[in-house]
Amino acid sequence: MKSILLTLFIIPVFIFSSFTHKPALSNNIIVLELFTSQGCSSCPPADRLLNEVKSDNIIAFSYHVDYWNYIGWKDPFSKSEYTNRQRTYGTKFNSSTIYTPQLVINGQEHIVGSDHRLLNQKITKYAKKVNANGVLLSNVSKSEDAVNFDYYVEGSIEDTYIRTILVINERKTYVKRGENRNRELINTNIVVNELRLKLETKSGNGSILVPEIVKSTDDLSLIVVIENNALDITGASQKVL
């Protein structure tokens, strides 16, 4: 487990347009957010575990942070925005440090991302809980530059935000330097773009840009997450593109 000191992060707010849609059913979706890096030797087991546990009811994605880039290998998927999101969770969890691999569960608690036994316990715990919001995605389409979709959110949307997340399902990288030098890493569920927007209406349409790092051969997934002001995740849905 690797750690650094904590600082604060503020996320910009935007607005979706609205439209009428049929309601979705509430469910017990579990959202797993892994903070990882290709420069961290402790991270590959957590990356593998995240991919092993994901399912229709377990939505999993990984943020590649940038604070490991200094040791000689620049993670091509790393962004300072993802480090800042981890710092925001650090503030919520009253932690003076952030670390990799860190796994955040439904925005409510965190564990070391490679702890298989504890993760299974947490999945069992959260599988018994029903989300406050159901999310229905429809009319999902991908062009060369963007992914477009319609959404409907069931349940109260007071003081909630909608996060639109685009992920590469799998990518292999040969790491030449750093703690994982001379290793081929298989990363999965890699966040490559994200928008966090104030949720003003229960139904609407959204769009997220496809960044240049995405190759024509990459398989992608669209994930939509609903969270409240406390960063607790209250609902989610995903579509494989």
Dominant shape: globular
Number of domains: 1
What name goes with the CATH superfamily? Glutaredoxin
Q: How would you characterize the largest beta sheet?
A: 4 strands, antiparallel
- What is the top-level CATH class? Alpha Beta
CATH architecture: 3-Layer(aba) Sandwich
* Backbone CA Rg: 17 Å
**What is the structural class?**
mainly beta
Residue share in β-strands: 35-45%
Can you walk me through this structure?
It is a single chain. The protein has a single domain, classed as Glutaredoxin. It has a 4-stranded antiparallel β-sheet, with no helix packed on it. The chain contains 3 helices and 14 strands. It is globular, with a radius of gyration of 17 Å. A hairpin with a 4-residue loop joins strand 13 and strand 14 (233-240). 38% of the residues are buried. Mean pLDDT is 90; it is low at 4-26. With 241 residues, the protein is mainly β.
